[in-house]
Amino acid sequence: MDGRRIAELAAAVRGGRRADRRLVTVDGFSGAGKTELATHLGVALDAPVLTLEELYPGWDGLADAVPLAVEWIAEPLAAGRPARWRVWDWERGVRGAWHELAAVPLVVLEGCGAGARALRPFTRVAIWVDAPPEQRERRLRARADWPGYAPFRTRWAAQEEAFHARERTRERADVIVDNSEIVNNSD
C-alpha cells in the first residue's frame, strides 16, 4: 500500500467535517484490499482496527453483522462506553468469547458491509476500496485461507452483490480508493 496514499487518507480523516464521529469504515468486495488498507490506516491514525469478520454469523450472515456492529461497537463508542462484541467461532459455527475495546476517539472498522447506512450516523469517513473483479479473484485465491473460503465463495459473492446494490455503499462512500494493480508493459 502506497505510504503517500495512506497519509492522504489519514489527513482526510483528521480533517473530516464529522470529527465528532468515531468510525472510519473501509468497505468493498472480497479481495479488494480492505484489510491491508485498514491496517495501514489504523497505524497512521494510531487507531485500533476491528473487522466485521468477527461479527458475521457464518457464511450467510453478511447483512446480519451490520445491526450487531451498530449495537456492540458503534452505539457504545458514540456514548463514550467501551465496545463489546462476541467473536464468531468459524470452526464451531457459534458465538465465542466476548471482546472489549475501551472507548477510544477513533476506530477503523473494515469488512464487507462496513459502509452500511445503519453505520453512517457513527461514521466520520466512509472509504470504499475498488479493484477489478479478476484482480480480486486472483488475490482471494492467493490467500492462505482460500481453501476454507473456496466452498463458500459463490454464496458470499451473491450476498456481497445484493448487499452493496441495496445499500449503495460505493455510491455513498466519502472516499473511493482505486486499489487495482498497476502493470508496467513497457519492458
From TrEMBL:
State the InterPro entries in the record: P-loop_NTPase (IPR027417)
Instruction: Give the protein's recorded name.
Output: Uridine kinase
- Native species of this protein? Pseudonocardia hispaniensis
